[in-house]
Amino acid sequence: xxxxxxxxxxxxxxxxxxxxxxxxxxxxxxxxxxxxxxxxxxxxxxxxxxxxxxxxxxxxxxxxxxxxxxxxxxxxxxxxxxxxxxxxxxxxxxxxxxxxxxxxxxxxxxxxxxxxxxxxxxxxxxxxxxxxxxxxxxxxxxxxxxxxxxxxxxxxxxxxxxxxxxxxxxxxxxxxxxxxxxxxxxxxxxxxxxxxxxxxxxxxxxxxxxxxxxxxxxxxxxxxxxxxxxxxxxxxxxxxxxxxxxxxxxxxx
Amino acid sequence: xxxxxxxxxxxxxxxxxxxxxxxxxxxxxxxxxxxxxxxxxxxxxxxxxxxxxxxxxxxxxxxxxxxxxxxxxxxxxxxxxxxxxxxxxxxxxxxxxxxxxxxxxxxxxxxxxxxxxxxxxxxxxxxxxxxxxxxxxxxxxxxxxxxxxxxxxxxxxxxxxxxxxxxxxxxxxxxxxxxxxxxxxxxxxxxxxxxxxxxxxxxxxxxxxxxxxxxxxxxxxxxxxxxxxxxxxxxxxxxxxxxxxxxxxxxxxxxxxxxxxxxxxxxxxxxxxxxxxxxxxxxxxxxxxxxxxxxxxxxxxxxxxxxxxxxxxxxxxxxxxxxxxxx
Lengths: 253, 327
Description:
The structure holds 2 protein chains of 2 kinds. By secondary structure, chain A is an alpha/beta fold. In chain A, strand 4 (61-66) and strand 5 (69-70) form a beta hairpin. Chain A has helices at 46-54, 76-82, 99-110, 125-137, 153-165, 183-194, 209-215, 233-238, 240-248; strands at residues 8-17, 20-30, 35-39, 61-66, 69-70, 84-86, 171-175, 201-205, 218-223, 226-231. In chain A, the strands form 2 sheets. A 6-stranded mixed beta sheet of chain A has the order 6-7-8-3-9-10, with helices on both faces. A 4-stranded antiparallel beta sheet of chain A has the order 2-1-4-5, covered by helices on one side. Chain B has a single domain, classed as ABC transporter involved in vitamin B12 uptake, BtuC. In chain B, helix 3 packs antiparallel against helix 4 and helix 4 (92-111) runs antiparallel to helix 10. The longest helix of chain B is centred in the first third of the chain and has 27 residues, at 9-35. The radius of gyration of chain B is 20 Å and the shape is globular. Chain B starts with 8 loop residues before the first helix and ends in a 20-residue tail after the last helix. Chains A and B meet through helix 2, helix 3 and helix 4 of A and helix 8, helix 9 and helix 10 of B.
């Protein structure tokens, strides 16, 4: 494959739920190592778009390619193996497991030992070492052996991101990583997001404009399922149509 | 820092304690041979029920699949063992092998029916499969003896040495040995990376797939292994009682094993075993006192357990095969 292929590319992606068009002819390109944000008012179809990228939903038509490889019909777990990971707007964690176990499982799965029946999970040094490193990186070491369900919300958000990173993705989709996190803890999320490896292409879906402008070097605006405009943060901030969408509609929180 | 082992000290101490409790359990099970020589037939039933419940625990406690038709595998195993003893060989170990194999094959084939859908769908599909098999066994009179059951089964002595005696000595030792072997296997499997990925599926299948766990393949695998155990349990019943009748497929059997597992607690392997002990001993005691009210008392106990929360019989055993446990 040649080196100029984009990390992730959709062509004419459409998704309909009955009569509702949630994604409307979206052709979108995420470049290698990108720091790209996807914004738009509530109900614009951002999460539906991410769900199609990650395989939770099947598009009605159109295609998705990861480094030139068509993944439109690929199962979600195989997309992860191909290098595409995501986080969820609402925590999707394993309540009864600890962060150490949670990350360990993701590491084991990536190392190809997730299917091993006859080997001890707890005593695998490769799994232990890598989960310990992730715990430290995401400031989770002090709660590493606490049941996930009883972690503070901010810690759960961090684990949400750490779990996606454990898959060592080439493309990472962050679906509102700061959603619901109190103001004084947001900097921790932002710090972690900013420190993510530079070679990972990141698509950030976010409502918090401070976070978007602090993070992104490119922004796309999604309105009613369709891409309205794409540009640098400065261009987007100056765009009259974007202003109209955000200032003119009252449903934006 | 980089090589921090999974078992932190406090956990290692906890693991040592659970190991001691496990040893105590098996010591008691062996001691029972000598301490209760007249209750060996009951003990044999307990061991078989315990194995059956262990099988359900793998499916329900670890993978989160509810089943109201687990007797399908048990029943098929019992008939496979019985038929093999009748028509092919009287070697009990071959019969057990056939029982486990047939259970596993049926488990693999029907696993694809329980992959998707809600708990209700799964309950009904598993129930339906066991009803189908029960009715098939009834109709195939020439093969199964229909309502009369499989009669005239004889099992040769185990290893040509240990005759199946009326007191149930050989029966209990054989069942206990099989149970022990299956617990060892289950323990190893549930503490493996495979076992850990099952827990992610149980807790959140959406996220499990999003970290790369092939959910379908995992569920097929664990369902097959569990069905193999259940088939073996059915085979043990056929071999040790030398009789098989339609009640091996009974709905009540599927319901009882669920009850036994809930009684003992799910997700730590010993729940089914302790539940089986409690269930059978209670049944024995209560039926002696008031034969007709046994179901009443067990019903009351079940309601009390569910309402009072999940503080169960085996809380002390909790978390045996967790990460950090001995393996």
